Each structure stands twice: as structure tokens, then as C-alpha cells.
Amino acid sequence: MNRSLGPRRLSKLSESMHRRLSAYELAATAAGVGVLALAPQTEAKIIYTPTHRVIKTGMNYTLDLNHDGIVDFTLSDVRCKSCGGGAGLSALPAAGNGASGFGTTQGTGWASALRQGALIGTRRYFPGKGMAYVATTGDGATVSGGSWVNVKSRYLGLKFEINGKTHYGWARLNVVIQNLSITATLTGYAYETIPNKPIVAGRTKATDDVSKVEQPPAQNATLGMLAQGAPALSIWRKPSALAAQ
């Protein structure tokens, strides 16, 4: 005699089984996240080089920001014969590179002495060359000019190329003018490894968000130099010629 089978009743999972399944689900989810984390990503990275290089009048220092053997900038501290025996400090860029500043790229650009926290990127202008000068006038007076006169821990905003792509960086310097001579001390420099990504002056570690960094007000080259009189104005017109002496 066959016994008819009615509909089967679903068995309820025990509480311990629920806990095991929940634990398994969490483990599987975590494993999936871990796989995603292994996917290649482009991360911001700042390469910082601390240093202590003293550059006195009559000396040059070649700056290779990314240590690839290619000179990106030359910090030139020269004696200026046309300035009555004074001196001129300049940041001379290799072709395609530039320093943040004001003026024009046709030999009359001056480099800004940025404060820590300034944003260096696409919104800046990079014609900078002349940094500071000291000279004597016809009546024997001493004049000096440029953004880098007697400053401490100021920053050159730098734009340079790696394999044809634009990168941004900074160089930190102290500058002292004394007895018609200029002494510059380079205390560190850094650059951002991601092309076209801005960098914050003084920052040695990367962060994802630099959009909230306030940009400093633009400097007015002409008014600043006019305030120093005719000797300063004549040098302002040709800082690259001063650097070449």
C-alpha cells in the first residue's frame, strides 16, 4: 500500500546556520573589495629632496628636480659689471620649462617669491627669471630689487617637462644681500609625479584635493620696480641680460 506524500514543509535554518551564512557573505564581500583594491590606479605622489646648497656670487647651481640627469633649471648668482660691481641672482630654465612670476618671456620676466601654501599649477604664469639684484648708482648709492631681496623660506614655483609632459614643482630658498653680494641657500625641492597636477608650495606628501588651496594675489611688476626709482627700472627691463654677465 502506497502512502501518498503531501507537500513537504520547508525546514527552518537554525540560528547557528544563519550566523555561518552571514559570516560567509561578509567574507565573500571583503574578498571582492580586496580584488578591486588590487586594480592598478594612478596615485598622486610628491618626490621631495631635502638639501643645503649655498650659492654665493660667482657661482651657479644646476637643479635636476626629478634626478634623471637632465638639468631643469640653473640658479645663477653672477657679478654684474654694468651694475657698478653689484650682483644678480636668476633662475634660468631649460627649454620648455619656467618659473612662476611676472613680466614677459622675452627676457624681462621676474620670479615670484611664493609663500608656503601657494598653489602652483595651470593658473599661474611662468616667465620668471630674475630673482634679486644689488647695484650702485652713479652717485654711489646702493639699490636692490626683485622679489627675493633678503627673504627666508620662500618658494620658486616651477614648471618643467618629463618625457614631453608638464609637471609642477617648487624649490625653497633663503636669500641674503650684503656688501654688493648675494648669497642664496637652497634648502629643498619637490615635484608632483602626475602630469599637469598642481602642487602646493612646501608640501612634501601628496593629497588628492588641492582645489581648496587659496592662490596668492598676482604681483604687479611695474609698480613695484617704479617705486624703487630709475636704477631699478633699467635693470627690470633686462633681467636675463644681467644674469648672463
Task: Identify the notable features of this structure and list them briefly.
4 helices, 37% strand, 14 strands, alpha+beta, 245 residues, 5-stranded antiparallel beta sheet
Which sheet architecture does the biggest sheet show?
5 strands, antiparallel
Q: What is the H/E order?
A: HEEEEEEEEEEEEEEHHH
* Total E-strand runs: 14
Structural class label? alpha+beta
Mean pLDDT: 78
Strand proportion, as a percent range, falls in 35-45%
Radius of gyration: 30 Å
What number of domains?
Answer: 1
User: Major sheet: order of its strands?
Assistant: 1-13-12-11-5
Please tell me what the overall shape is.
elongated
Short précis:
17% of the residues lie in helices and 37% in strands. The chain contains four helices and 14 strands. The chain has helices at 15-37, 221-226, 230-236, 239-244; strands at residues 46-55, 59-63, 73-80, 86-93, 98-99, 101-102, 110-111, 119-120, 130-136, 142-145, 151-162, 165-178, 181-192, 199-200.
What report would you give on this structure?
This protein has about 240 residues and is an alpha+beta fold. It is built from four helices and 14 strands. The strands form four sheets. The protein has a five-stranded antiparallel sheet, with no helix packed on it. Strands 2-3-4-9-10 form a five-stranded antiparallel sheet.
